[in-house]
Protein: Fimbrial chaperone protein
Amino acid sequence: MFVRRAPGIWGFALAAGLAMWCGAASAGTFGLSPMRVELSAAAPTAVLTLSNSGDTPVTLQIQARAWQQVGGQDEQGATSDLILNPSLATIPPGGEQIVRVALRNPPDRERERAYRLLVREVPSTEVPEAQPASLGLRMALAMDIPMFVAPIAKEGRAQPLVSIEKAPAGASQLRIANEGPRHLRLTDLVVSQGGQVLAQQGVFVVLAGAERRLPLAAADPKAAAAPIAVKAQSNVGPIELNVQAASPR
Structure:
């Protein structure tokens, strides 16, 4: 079963949940490196390094989720494609833990597979007898990083197709489809018309064979006839093009 998530920046996501704790000074902190994992038939394993820079032990759970984009929405679902060892670890203050990630099955022959690796802090349930748990709350952190498994076929790359269309509510939106067998990663994406910025996005990822949309601000009526400029850096080179605005319905 896949869980739908709102579109967002996937280069690095930091989620937080509330956990009962016995004092705000005990907040744990953990780090993760690298922030992106790529596997292939030639390199079927990778190593993650988890670190604890806090002053108390931290227990971390590592999970892999299948990642797809349907109807412009990010979705995550359970997967058994990957081996994580260990999937649960307690790291002492100032310590590190190595986590090995490996493919359970061969890569797809034609298309890249995408996953998310979720590293989540498991809150401690230890509470001193002299202080009830209700006196303190602590944020339980989670890091969510992308992982890609290259197809066996070495040829092929992302193929962006950019257009402007009308949203159901009538506003314009940028549509970016990726017709290639590998993901498209845009950075510093800027959409403008007649010198007016309509949208900006730091990181924008479109998976292989998928599409995503970005809402655009209303343009100045005086610039309505001007083309819409789309500029970004990407993993297939710089993108700089003019797109004709969508015609009113």
